[in-house]
């Protein structure tokens, strides 16, 4: 597994600055651009965590999983910073939060409409395409509210377990 070791010069050089287009194609530039588009300042920690989150494609991570990845990649962040950053990314629309039983929370890098399988007894979350789930009828929301989205979680267990 490749290690990600960051220094300030990896994130931004003095002559290029935050607004430079000279870093097109650079993964850190891409993360900075993504953060700017949603109104988040591309701080060193946000860019580093964003790179760890988004560089591997669509996936589901917990704060603890991301913190562990950051430690392995020698990204100097605290677990509290990881939690705060994940919540900021979620509020900005970069992630979807998936709370399981109130005890476990995953953050999904895929913002498209879809649902999830959860494997009981494992830290496994599997995407279900939205078209594979038929929600025939939804209840009318209380007055003053509207339905923002429907999240279906289907729990799995291994046969014979």
UniProtKB/TrEMBL annotation:
GO cellular component terms listed in the entry, alphabetical order: cytoplasm
UniProt xrefs under CDD domains: Fur_like
Keyword terms, alphabetized: Cytoplasm, DNA-binding, Iron, Metal-binding, Repressor, Transcription, Transcription regulation, Zinc
Record GO biological process: negative regulation of DNA-templated transcription; regulation of secondary metabolite biosynthetic process
Subcellular location: Cytoplasm
Gene3D superfamilies (alphabetical): Winged helix-like DNA-binding domain superfamily/Winged helix DNA-binding domain
Annotated GO MF terms: DNA-binding transcription factor activity; transcription cis-regulatory region binding; zinc ion binding
SUPFAM superfamilies in UniProt: Winged helix' DNA-binding domain (SSF46785)
Family classification: Belongs to the Fur family.
Subunit field text: Homodimer.
Protein name: Ferric uptake regulation protein
